[in-house]
User: Fold this.
Amino acid sequence: MSRSFMPEVKTEEELKALQLDGLKWTVRHAYTNSPFYRKRLEAAGVVPESIKSLDDLKRLPFTTASDLQEGYPFPLRAVDDEEIVRIHASTGTTGKRKILCYTKKDIDDWANMFARCYEMAGVTRRDRVQIAVGYGLWTAGVGFQLGCERFGAMAVPVGPANRDMHCELMVDLQTTVFCCTASMGLLMAEEIHNRNLRDRIAVKKVIFGAERHSAAMRRKIEEYFGIEESFDIPGLTELYGPGTGLDCEKHEGVHYWADYYILEIINPETLEPLPPGETGEMVVTTLRKEGAPLIRYRTRDLTYLHPEPCSCGSVLPMHGPLLGRTDDMFIIRGVNIYPAQIDRILSQEPGVESEYQVILNRKEGKDYMTIRAERAKTANPSEDEAITARLENVIRHKLLVRGRVELVDYASLPRTSRKTRRVFDERNNG
Ligand code: ZN
Assistant:
């Protein structure tokens, strides 16, 4: 008899009751044991007894990435040293690395959450899971490993090693599940394609760990691996690590583990909560985390809550794909726009490549947006007019703001291996 890692609660009411208990516990735990949180909560006029319903969440102060940096190296810590059994750190793309501490129970909860990912993806205990993400200080490798062992499948812990080794093990062990970042998935897909391995491997599912990728990239990986489906695992070191959600076999959205944390979507400008369907910043509050609990932690990731439950019947709600970071968002004529929306529009137009720049400027008090895109390698400049007209039309309908499209030669926009700057706001340059 195999154990299930799905939530014990079956209805929305039961889930809400469990969330309220968890919220009360978290506020009391943080208030009692973390000097940082006590100060914050006191300043907001909140004592543990003030939490009476889930609505009281709105009264709690936000926590941000800079709070974690200020408390370095043990930010948000709410337990004694002897309770901490492990630390992990995030790469810290902006500023100092973030270190988070875990108690034995935190590690245990994380393993159960991650085991749920494998279960929801339809993995069985007979599967062989080849893990190609990084091990060490980062949460990725150890998270995939921990969840796999807890679930009971066979873990093949390779890490992001060389492709020769991955191909060899994939063929020899007849690996059935491959776990990787989307970029690694693409590299491996091309490798399998180039070495003509498709008929010699047995991979049925690819699980991606926490890296934004386009639908086109995912399709290519599925095609080259010769698989029917792939899954996406979101993850954030502050919130345990990867494994806090997964898109199920219906692929209608990303289920998130609402019995372990509450997810709010807020307007990053006004900080007001947004209704389902509206895109904003993801804010998380943990319900059982001991070492470094999170209270309304602003992740800076943009997504939206699904207004409807999934057709799979799960009680676990869903959020949309991650659409980028709040830092990348810009506002034009009162409309919030983020680069992922432009990515998506351009990826549906065969006449252009994926590289682009957005230039914002102001003339006579009015804001203008120009999108500079590369003409596709195969497109003829004589088609420019038709392509720009098509794109301008889609932009007006999808983004609800007008934008001018300008085509430039293929491969003429700058490319870097690091994060490429794409938005140029020239509105305050006189
Ligand atoms: Zn579902």
Observations:
- Residues 12-33 form the longest helix (22 residues).
